[in-house]
């Protein structure tokens, strides 16, 4: 897990590392600091009321990732999450959240300004008014899909 920005630095979560998102023809490499910055922004904004969070058009971030049942459905992402003990899918009362992985850190913009890459975190379903705590899980991307309207996410891989 990456701790909050108040405690500094990267900590325990399954050897966080720089990642490469997408196929070789459309690949973006993200250094560890960019992943940390996006996760820090997810944590900071994840405790704010929805209307105070950064938005891309009508999408506020962090936003819940997964189907209406709060569970991711993309097979490759589910398999990647299930390889991380803290992030295994199917845990009772847990939700997944996504936040844009951009440089500089995403703060607001028009639709599509959030780009194709995201960080994903898991948090207990705390209900209205509770304090949420996030655990970093992985980075994922829309890159490498069948076209510009492909909504499927794929997990990013550790950078070589």
Automatic annotation (TrEMBL):
Under Gene3D superfamilies, the record lists: Microbial ribonucleases
Record has Hydrolase as a keyword: yes
For the region Disordered, give the residue spans: 1-27
- Keywords annotated in UniProt: Hydrolase, Nuclease
InterPro entries for the chain: Ribonuclease/ribotoxin
Q: What is this protein called?
A: Uncharacterized protein
Organism, scientific name: Alectoria fallacina
User: Biased composition, Polar residues: where in the chain?
Assistant: 1-14
Sample GO molecular function, one term: RNA binding
Ribosomal protein: is it a keyword of this entry? no
**SUPFAM superfamilies the record matches:** Microbial ribonucleases (SSF53933)
């Amino acid at each position: 897990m990456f701790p909050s920005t108040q405690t500094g630095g990267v900590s325990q979560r399954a050897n966080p590392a720089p990642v490469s998102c997408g196929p070789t023809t459309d690949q973006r490499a993200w250094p560890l600091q960019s992943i940390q910055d996006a996760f820090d922004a997810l944590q900071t904004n994840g405790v704010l009321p929805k209307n105070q969070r950064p938005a891309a058009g009508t999408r506020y971030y962090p936003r819940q990732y997964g189907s209406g049942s709060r569970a991711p459905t993309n097979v490759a992402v589910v398999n990647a999450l299930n390889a991380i003990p803290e992030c295994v899918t199917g845990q009772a009362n847990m939700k997944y959240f996504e936040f844009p992985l951009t440089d500089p850190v995403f703060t607001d913009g028009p639709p599509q300004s959030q780009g194709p890459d995201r960080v994903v975190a898991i948090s207990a379903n705390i209900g209205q008014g509770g304090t949420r705590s996030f655990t970093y899980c992985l980075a994922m991307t829309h890159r490498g899909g069948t076209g510009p309207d492909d909504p499927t996410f794929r997990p990013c891989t550790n950078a070589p």
